[in-house]
Design goal:
Length: 83
């Protein structure tokens, strides 16, 4: 699992839209979808349900969203301490 996939997933959770997440990140929607698929493969669970109005987190997606957000806060704190 790559840090980039987690960053993309966290933005997807915030925006609730693959297209909007891609715009915010400055990448293509395909790149966001690919990173999401990588996470789902790694975790062996679907994280989102796609719909006409955006994405909805599955139970596994909600759990991973909580944990990944906490993980990113911890990484940011560690970076600040190192600097």
């Amino acid at each position: 699992m790559q840090l980039q996939a987690i960053l993309y997933f966290n933005e997807l959770v915030r925006s609730r839209s693959i297209r909007q997440a891609a715009e915010t990140l400055g990448v293509s929607p395909t790149a966001v979808s690919r990173q999401l698929e990588n996470l789902e493969t790694y975790l062996e669970a679907p994280l989102v349900e796609r719909g006409a109005r955006g994405i909805v987190l599955t139970p596994a997606g909600r759990l991973f969203a909580e944990r990944s957000e906490a993980m990113m806060r911890d990484l940011d704190n560690a970076k600040q301490v190192i600097e």
